[in-house]
Each structure stands twice: as C-alpha cells, then as structure tokens.
Amino acid sequence: MNIAICDDSTKDVELICALLQEHFDKNGFIGELHTFSSGEALVKAFAAQPFDVVFLDIYMEGMNGMKTAERLRELNPSFSLVFITTSKDHALDSFSLGTSSYVVKPIKREDIDRAFFKCRDVFLKNGRFIEVMSDRMKRRIPLHKILFMEVYGKEVLVHTSTETIKTSTPLDELEKMTTASFLRCHRSYMVNLRYVEAIQLDDFRLRNGSLVPLRQRGRSELRDAYADFVSDRLFEVSL
C-alpha cells in the first residue's frame, strides 16, 4: 500500500509517519510512506503514480487541501482520503470529495489508527486491480469496479461503475490481469460475471442495463461457465 502524507508542518508530517509506522509494526502491515510539504508537489507525484491512501492537511500555503483533493480526484478517483485539519468547518464540502475520515489536530495516535483502519479495510475489500495507461497517465482500476471491457478500434474501453476509461493496452493483456469472475465471452468483449443479471439468447444483460454480446461459437460453454459461477456464489453465501 502506497501512502502519501501532505502537510506544510514538518512536525506534523513526522508525527503522522511515526504513528503509521508504529501501526504497521504492531499489526504486521506493509506500507510505503511518501511525504510532501505542498499540494502542488503532491499533485505532480500523484499524476505519475497514484497513491492508495492520502493524508492531506486542509490549511496549507499555496494550493490548499480542498483544491488539492479536487485535483487528485480528477486524476484518479480510486483512493482513500483522510483530511488533517484544525477544525471540521469543511466537513460538508469534503463529503463530495469522498473523504474516508478526519483527523483533527493536535494529532493523536488513536485518531490515526482509526482513520487508517478504515482505509485499510477499503484497500483489502477492493483487492486486486489492473494498471493501464490512459491519456498518458497510469491508471489503477480496482477489478471489483469493472463491469465489462470492449475493444473499440485500436483501443479498449474499460467500463466501470463510475466511468469509462480508454486504454491502448490490448484486451488479451488485460485478460491476464483479471480473476475468475471475468469471462472472455467474445473476441472483443470481457464481462465481470458479478454484474450479470441474466444471460439471454445473444448477450449478457448487466444490472445497469448494458448488453454484452456472446460469441457465436461456444455459447453453450459460456452458459455453463455462467451457471457454474452462479452456483459457486450461492454456495459461498450458504456457508
């Protein structure tokens, strides 16, 4: 897990790093800490390599925390955000930025632990992801958010629950990064079976209404694969 700490107070940055490292050592968790003293520096680094968790001070010189968070969400919406602040005056505004937690100064160990536990749970729940290049930026897309992927000309469109991402990474390569819940149902399509509502004569119907076509040959195998997936899911629920 890659974690960024951004605060123009060197003392607070050092304290957060120390408390997080203590948390890692105590709970056997592995994480990389990256520190920044300005929103501008964080945005530049984030554009090159998104972080999984960002601890961000709201009141900073130059680009403040709210503006920095907006820029980060534009670059990549899939990360946990923890605001570091002297008050909760911006609580309502920060809600739209998908804030995971608040840590109010003076910083306390229990507040850092509580905030990180929330972020860690999200990270573990999201599990695996694929990394693709999109608009000359590296994007990390959690597998659980992907509905389906389709070849579109020389690109692949990755349809997620919140957006559609274009990438030049071939579908054959993306298939190697996926898990058992993904099915190559067509030369140009791959579907996440977790989002399938029903299998029809010519396509899968997803819960959001999207239709993903089935290849002409081997449709019985596709139907069997879907039936096996549903059966396994029902078994998991019954345990």
From TrEMBL:
Annotated HTH LytTR-type domain residues: 141-228
Pfam families: LytTR, Response_reg
PROSITE patterns: HTH_LYTTR (PS50930), RESPONSE_REGULATORY (PS50110)
Keywords, ordered alphabetically: Phosphoprotein
Domain Response regulatory: 2-120
Sites of 4-aspartylphosphate modification: D57
Molecular-function GO terms, alphabetical: DNA binding; phosphorelay response regulator activity
Function as written in the Swiss-Prot or TrEMBL entry: May play the central regulatory role in sporulation. It may be an element of the effector pathway responsible for the activation of sporulation genes in response to nutritional stress. Spo0A may act in concert with spo0H (a sigma factor) to control the expression of some genes that are critical to the sporulation process.
Protein name: Stage 0 sporulation protein A homolog
